[in-house]
Amino acid sequence: MSKTEALQRVKVAKINELPQKIGKVIKIDGHDIALFHLSSGKVRAVENKCPHKQGPLAEGMVSGEYVFCPLHDWKIDLTSGEVQKPDDGCVKTYETEVTDGVVYILL
To answer: Where is the Rieske domain (predicted)?
Structure first.
């Protein structure tokens, strides 16, 4: 069984309904997930709270593959979830997939 087959695909949006560089909050099983359509065309998903003071990352400014927390400007890598040094921390990331214009989060 491949990794993708072991994961549940949850349809969350249509790619053409996601503005680039603007976060969107998706709720799945009681979890808030921040979804981002990057200017590169990629879609990234991370838990919607900064590890510092639980700032809502979906409201943050996006630059390249990073989001800046709107509360204290922590820079978070949307691929790895790692906070840029000198700050320290990590957010949960979710694998995404776009098929026929539909965005899925793999859980």
So the answer is: 10-105
Domain locations along the chain: 3-106
- Model confidence pLDDT, tens digit, residues 31-78: 999 999 999 999 999 999 999 999 999 999 999 999 999 999 999 999
Helices (DSSP H) in 1-107: which residue ranges? 3-6
Architecture per CATH, 3-106: 3-layer Sandwich (2.102)
d(CA 75, CA 22): 16
CA-only gyration radius of the chain, Å: 13
Q: Where are the beta strands (DSSP E) in the chain?
A: 9-14, 24-28, 31-37, 43-47, 61-63, 66-68, 75-77, 93-99, 102-106
Query: Could you tell me the pTM of the whole model?
Result: 0.90
